[in-house]
Amino acid sequence: MRLSGVQDDTAALARVGWAVRRLTGGPGPEQDLSAFLDRRDPENLSDEIEPFVDRASGWLDLMGQAADLHSITRAAMGFHLWGLAGLGQHGDQMEAAVAAARIAACEGRGAVFAPLAMGGAGGLRAGGSPFDRLARWLDGMCDCDAAA
User: Fold this and answer.
1) What's the pLDDT at 66?
2) How far apart are CA 117 and CA 113, in angstroms?
3) If you average pLDDT over each of 5-19, 30-44, 67-81, 104-118, which comes out highest?
4) Among candidate residues 97, 88, 90, the one with its CA nearest the CA of residue 55
5) What are phi and psi of 141, to 5 degrees?
6) How confident is the model at residue 98 (pLDDT cuts 50, 70, 90)?
7) Residue scoring higher pLDDT (87 or 125)
8) Secondary structure class of 118 (helix, strand, coil)
9) Residue closest to 113 by CA, chosen among 135, 141, 78, 73
10) Residue 75 per-residue DSSP state
């Protein structure tokens, strides 16, 4: 996360606090997405807008269909489906990245989340075939160049 000015400090700290709370405990995104994100539809939602619960259900249904895949693969899939499901807010990918980090580590022993950009932000870029996206995702998680 980068700050573009002093006025961004408070908002950035609030976002970092939100991310840390989601990464270190509470329900995971696949257990209760509304609680994980702490998002609800406003009571005066217009008829033109699809309710959050419907968008979240679509994403959760797709994630449920991938239950047999490895958790790291599911994390990459969930991240790249986030925007397609209409879950992103104004192009912001922080929620998607935090959810993916929790999903990636769900089978881990001791780790609550997996870092996603150790080798750069390539895994967070859209574009390319599913194979290319997964390869970039794995490269981003392991920082393979540093190990060489």
Assistant:
1) 93
2) 12
3) 67-81
4) 88
5) -75, -35
6) very high
7) 87
8) coil
9) 141
10) H
The pLDDT of residue 58 is 92
SS3 call for 92: strand
Q: Please, are residues 87 and 63 in contact by the beta-carbon 8 Å criterion? A: no
Q: Is 105 exposed, middle or buried (0-12, 13-18, 19+ CB in 10 A)?
A: buried
| DSSP string computed for 9-21 | HHHHHHHHHHHHH
* Torsion, CA 32, CA 36, CA 41, CA 43, rounded to 10: 90
CA dihedral 22, 43, 93, 101 (to 10 degrees): 30
Q: Could you give the CA distance from residue 76 to residue 83 in angstroms, rounded to a whole number?
A: 13
Q: Tokens for 97, please give them.
A: 């990245």
Q: What is the pLDDT of residues 32-71, one digit of tens each?
A: 898 898 887 766 666 667 788 888 999 999 999 999 998 8
Q: Report the Cα 25 to chain-centroid distance in Å.
A: 15
Please give the helix or strand (H or E) that residue 127 lies within, else none: none
